Predict the 3D structure of the following.
Amino acid sequence: MNTTTHDIRVMTSGAFTAAHLELIPRLELLTGRKIVTASTSIGTGENSIPNRLRRGEVVDVVIVADAVLMEFIRDGLVLAEACTPLARSAIGMAVRAGAPNPDIGTAEALKRTLLQAKSIAYSASVSGRYVTTELYQRLGIADQV
């Protein structure tokens, strides 16, 4: 990032970028400082947030999903005492056009729906990781889907 000592340096993952970028003009007005943003992934690429932090890149603010933030704290990449929740995010479900709407009104109904699905697609980002590492486990179907 090309910055001065007065700039506020922010790294954010794709999921939060649009909201962050919309807030920049107001933040700059309120703080009197320029917001310099690096919008990148939380994946494993050379320019991913975790790899940039591991290389010691200096940043003032990191905006990522809670699960990722907890990993960063565990790995010593960010300070736990500086963490502040910013938002809650829902995960949605969709079916192809013309297909009946599945019953996902209860955990048991969601479990049944997932087990009966011919195919399941999810993003490669944090929400997809949540589905595969947490939701399937909690529903007891990790080995079945």
Observations:
- The longest helix spans residues 14-31.
- Residues 66 and 103 are 28 Å apart (CA to CA).
- The beta strands are 8-13, 35-40, 61-63.
- The chain has a mean pLDDT of 89.
